[in-house]
Specification:
This protein is an alpha/beta fold and about 160 residues long. It contains 6 helices and 8 strands. The protein has a single domain, classed as Glucose Oxidase, domain 1. Helix 5 links the parallel strand 5 and strand 6. Helix 4 runs parallel beside helix 5.
C-alpha cells in the first residue's frame, strides 16, 4: 500500500529532516481509505525522490522520513516491508545524532522487516493508486546484505 504523506500534507516535496510520525501515517492512510493488514508492504512517498538525477547534492544531504515512533508503530502492525522514495527511509539528519540509522537497526536487525529504498512512487501517487500487488525480483547475490532488483506494482 502507498502512504502518500507528501500528497496528504499538500506539498510537492517534504523537507530534509522532516519527521514522519505515526499520526502522519494514520491520517494519510485514513484519507486514502486504506488500512494496514498483517503481512503488508508499506510504501511511503515524501516527494524527495523527485530530486534524484536533478539535484543529487540536495537529495543526498538529508531527507524526510519516519522516526522511531513511526517505525515501532509499523512494526506493531506486523508489516513485512517498508519502502520509500528516499535513500534511507528514515529521517536524516537523525532524531538522535548519537544513534545514526536507528530505524534501520530497529526494522531490519531487531524485527526482520525488509527495507526498500530509492523508489519512483510518483506515478502511483499521481494516479491515486494506494493498494496494489507488489512483486520484487532481486538479483541473487551470494553473501550480500542487499540487492538491486525490479519492483513492480500491479493494480
Amino acid at each position: 500500500m502507498l502512504a502518500d504523506v507528501a500528497g496528504h500534507k499538500g506539498v510537492d516535496r517534504m523537507k530534509p529532516g522532516e519527521v514522519i510520525t505515526t499520526k502522519d501515517l494514520q491520517d494519510t492512510l485514513k484519507a486514502e481509505g486504506v488500512r494496514i493488514n498483517e503481512g503488508d508492504a508499506v510504501f511511503i512517498r515524501t516527494g524527495h525522490g523527485k530530486l534524484w538525477m536533478k539535484d543529487n547534492q540536495t537529495y543526498g544531504d538529508g531527507e524526510p522520513g519516519i522516526g522511531m515512533e513511526a517505525a515501532k508503530w509499523l512494526t506493531a502492525q506486523k508489516i513485512v516491508m517498508i519502502a520509500s522514495d528516499t535513500w534511507a527511509t528514515e529521517v536524516v539528519p537523525h532524531e538522535n545524532p548519537d544513534r545514526p540509522f536507528e530505524v534501520h537497526q530497529w526494522l531490519l536487525t531487531r524485527n526482520g522487516i525488509y527495507n526498500l529504498e530509492n523508489l519512483d512512487l510518483e506515478e502511483l501517487a499521481a494516479d491515486k493508486v494506494y493498494e496494489f500487488a507488489f512483486i520484487f525480483s532481486p538479483l541473487r547475490l551470494k553473501g550480500a546484505s542487499g540487492s538491486p532488483g525490479n519492483p513492480i506494482a500491479v493494480r
